[in-house]
Design a protein that fits this description.
single chain, about 260 residues, alpha/beta, Metallo-beta-lactamase, Chain A, 7-stranded mixed beta sheet, 14 strands
Length: about 260
């Protein structure tokens, strides 16, 4: 069974930090390469690691800008780079994503051209109730509690050493059963201090809540992401480690992890 590999493309919260883009992750198994989210400032980091023309798919967890903006950068690269792609790149969107692309195309192009604006992609919506098979990897989805519909994703290559990505989520999301026993978890920790928002409607985790989720799901490694530079990420890691009781890695562009 192939090893699973993860490369961090960015780990900032809603706005890019100095020298770091927002949410974006390259997940690999064997020759299969999937980009999970492609937020603000992540495309240049992606280019450092792979030929963007040859990735197997881009999958988006939800349609907030900090998880999607560099799909536009990728679109321009596919359309205008002097080395043309050999096929349309698969782009998997959450429910409602095709309408989102249509509205975006109308905003960014002449109305007579809008229907072809995203023609570099083979764009489809995934069904959150059904596993998505891409090469060696299969993806399962779980809804989170966020301000718009959002899905956590579990990646598996059949070896029992899975990766779970929480995407954006509040503490009332039922992610423990979904994440149970995975080897690696990427969890967000952008909520800071004492929030005035009710826990039941809050759409983000504190670092401690991310650590607690990882502990309860019995994962081996927690990668803490979606952080503001202004909120001292190293302190956030310490808080997550205290709750988790295991190894916590700060999401940093270019960081690579392999396991089997």
């Amino acid at each position: 069974m192939s090893a699973m590999r993860l490369t961090i493309l960015g780990g900032s919260a809603a706005g890019a930090n100095p020298g770091q883009g927002c949410s974006g992750y390259l997940v690999e198994s064997g020759s299969t390469r999937i980009v999970m989210d492609l937020g603000t400032g992540t495309f240049p980091e992606l280019r450092r690691h792979v030929d963007f023309r040859t990735i197997d798919a881009v999958v988006l967890s939800h349609l907030h800008l900090d998880h999607t903006l560099d799909v536009l950068a990728l679109r321009y690269a596919l359309a205008y780079n002097p080395v043309s792609p050999s096929r349309r790149l698969p782009l998997w969107l959450p429910p409602g994503g095709l309408d989102f692309l249509d509205r975006l195309a109308l905003a960014l192009s002449d109305p007579t051209e809008s229907s072809r604006y995203f023609s570099v992609f083979d764009a489809r919506e995934f069904d959150p109730e059904v596993a998505l098979y891409i090469g060696e990897l299969h993806l399962r989805f779980q809804p989170t509690v966020h301000y718009i519909p959002c899905w956590a994703t579990r990646f598996s290559n059949g070896g029992g050493r899975d990766l779970v990505y929480t995407a954006d989520t509040g503490p009332t999301s039922d992610l423990v059963p979904f994440s149970q026993g995975s080897s690696v978890m990427i969890a967000e920790g952008s909520e800071w201090g004492m929030s005035q928002e009710p826990v039941t409607s809050r759409g983000h985790l504190t670092p401690s809540e991310a650590g607690t989720l990882a502990r309860n799901a019995e994962v081996n490694v927690l990668i803490l992401s979606h952080l503001w530079a202004e909120n001292d990420p190293l302190t956030a890691v310490h808080e997550a480690e205290t709750a988790f009781g295991g190894k916590v890695i700060l999401a940093t562009p270019g960081f690579r992890l392999s396991w089997n």
